Amino acid sequence: MFKNIVRLEARAESSHLMSYASPLIAIVLMMVGGLILFSILGKNPIEGFRIFFINPISDIYGLGELLLKATPLMIIATGLAIGFRANVWNIGAEGQFIMGGVAASAVALYFYESDGIHILICMVIAGGIGGMLWAAIPAFLKTRFNTNEILVSLMLVYVAQLAVSWLVHGPMIDPEGFNFPQSRMFEESALLPILIDGTRLNAAFMFALSVLLVGYVFMYRSFLGFQMQVAGNASDAARYAGFSAKRMVWIGLLSGGSMAGLAGMTEVSGPMGQLTEHVSNNYGFAAIIVAFVARLNPIGIFFASLLMALLYLGGEQGQQYMNLPSSISNVFQGMLLIFLLGSDVFINYRLKWGKP
Amino acid sequence: MSSILFATITAGTPLIIVALGQLIAEKSGVLNLGAEGMMAMGAVTAFAVTLHSGSPWLGVLAGMGAGALMSLLFGFVVLTLMGNQVATGLALSIFGIGLSAFIGKPYESDILPTVEAIRIPVLADIPIIGPAFFHQQALVYFSWALFFILVWFLYRSRSGLVLRAIGESPSSAHSIGFSVIKIRYGATLFGGAMAGIGGAFLSVFYTPLWVEGMVSGRGWIAIALVVFATWRPFRVLVGAYLFGGVMVAQLFLQGSGIQIEVPSQFLSALPYIATIVVLVIISRDRNTVRLNAPASLGKPYRPEE
After folding, report:
1. Most exposed among A311, B155, B243, B287, judged by the fewest C-beta atoms under 10 Å?
2. CATH fold for the domain made of B2-107+139-292
3. pTM for this predicted structure
4. pLDDT tens digit string along A264-278?
């Protein structure tokens, strides 16, 4: 019925311009959606826009918070992008993040009341391994039993949440914490050094930047990265070329898992300074959106992480000044991804007006 | 014994409704991983409408509408705009969980009155199974009716045949004159509506309250259930009660007062671990899933003009 007014026509080849413009379109649509949402809620949309997108980054502390929140997102999204490029769908970064945080916390508590740089080093290693082991479960089941990695990695998120809940209620509870379900506060020696005075931004940000760099080199300059790209774009071609599909699954899941685990480490030894039940702020899921909005490209991940971090901060501000539930951040994040996936159609198709 | 059976059936009911809805969508070739988000939206909408109107049935209807609306959004992105189904489903889940938490914030301290169960005369007097099977919430009977209707629809009706044909080979179905996209829209909407009812069952009949994150993975378990059932309705039914049993077993163990050395969190993790175990069992033989899955599942289709 609409066919006579507007329809989609296949492009002769996919548009490079649109593949970069589509995330920007999605961002604009998300903001329009936000304005509409604010109006529906009876809030002043301009005021809401200011509180959400401008207020949070209007001083040096705010900018520090922005980079602080973007740090875990950059780390996780880079790891996930490596797998997504090869069509390995690790959806369980949230659980791997938690397990990395748990492992790093265990090290911090083991070395409680001692000093030395080895503590942080051990925490980094433990965090990476913790996340990697959690991701190894779907990788093993996928390669050995052909089990769907989406569902398995996702189920393990719930298991990880229950595991951390048990740990902070039992074995890792603060003995002087009046039975609050949380670990001891870590000692100074188990905390990441602050980068800029007056902010909470810590050394993990530098680490995130190096992850982006290494990720870039791996994806665009290494043979293995190339193999994974081919496997994702043309699985038949990859098979003919003799690239091992199992190896792709392992690399895809373990890179995502180890990075998510490391991000978990930076969270417990950074802004949290202890292990609690709510160790993750949905970072594992937000990083999936980051990876997609960024077109699985590390440079894009840098900017998409900043945007996603801004949505987190905006949500906090909205909670404080507009009395909105904090889940508004998730609403914005979900809208962004849906708009992006929708506007991606214009990469391969164009709108054609008038009668065919 | 009867009460365990009763609770198992109650716990399995939302899984049956949601998984059967998913099954229909998947039979047409559409993989919607947004079930978790659609259930959450169904749950919160049904709760709010029931609270304001006083009628749980209006609530269920509203929940169904909310689920269908969510799936319409999904359908527009993946069917009209040919977006990636896996990523869009995921986005729908994240969006639905966020939006439901957002909408539901003011309702977190409210509790709905319990809805009276419906007692089927004579049958309910059978010892043990009578009270468990025939003195249940209306939606439990609905889930059985849904099962029988869908079995008839899929395997005995012409429309069911068309639906399956589209899932197997959209291009052949198109070439003999069926509108693939329209029928896929229909199947997707049905899946969303059922997910909405499943969510409504949780918030209006099962708990009956609204808490952020209360769907707690049931949408994902329902999707796993369809794989586990190798796309057969009867196995969905059996699988759903199996999972219902696992969910209930942990509640009974926790509430039984039996001194067990296992932490409660471990028992709560059982349904998720069970999901992984059944997925391993069913996927172990590479051909089981490949031969039973609709051939076009998850693949976008655009009819040639």
Report:
1. B287
2. ABC transporter involved in vitamin B12 uptake, BtuC (1.10.3470)
3. 0.91
4. 999 999 999 899 988
